[in-house]
Specification:
mainly alpha, 12 helices
Length: 299
Amino acid sequence: MAKIYNLSIFLSFAGLWITSIFSGEFEVILGFILIFSFGILHGSNDILLMNSISGQNNKYRFLRVLFTYISIVLIAALIFYILPITALLLFVIFSAFHFGEQHWEYRGLQLETPWNLCFYFVYGLLVLQTLFVLNPTDTIEIVHSISGYTLNTTILTYTFATALIIFCAFVIYLINHSPHFKSIVIIELVYLLIFAVLFKASTLIWGFTIYFIFWHSLPSLYEQIKFIYSDVNKKNTLTYLKKAFPYWFVSLIGITVVYLLFKDDTLFYALFFSFLAAITFPHTIIINKMFSNKKSQPN
């Protein structure tokens, strides 16, 4: 996993280089391309993951999981239509926990449940709030396009400050109770500093893309392949991509149609984040089950 994060650092600074020579409009277009490729791809094999978790791989099980997954996506989309501000808050909550869990689960924090789950959420929320507070204009515009609610910058500042204070409290506790955390705390704080620099220099979409693709999706793909096939190599990676391709392709067609219909409308941002949230909800649950299953397996 260390090699993955070294690659993430290199790609992040490549992304920073892009911000210095291209316009914000180019960043947005490239950001959507990456999110629709690697970003959506990392969540395209959720059904295969569920089969691996359950230990079953028959047609009936596949159809039942597929039906459940699609139902959750449709319910999430409906919530965005009926209660957009509620759905948006749920999206931030689920995403924060999901990002934090993916980043910290394999590190062995020596935190008992539910404190480990709280830490995952606080860390992920801090990353998201750093992105939002450093790009307030874009954040306010997108929130308004989704929900009609005009967000106050004070809310962004207070939420960021709250997440930062709670995170610092966790850091102090872990330094004193987890030798492993103490050995990695400096590099983890450096990561957060890198995020802040990238978010400040980028547009909201490009900053989100850099984190989502390079710091979340790539490590997640690594973890998923290792969980399903027990080893990460060229053969297993190609098998994973082959199985994920149909789901990824359907998702790509759907969002492409939406883009062609609404590309010149701010409504596209609302539809994009609604789509992303709708697939995030079930994906977060499945990845949590994957990590729980890994813990229960004998070493």
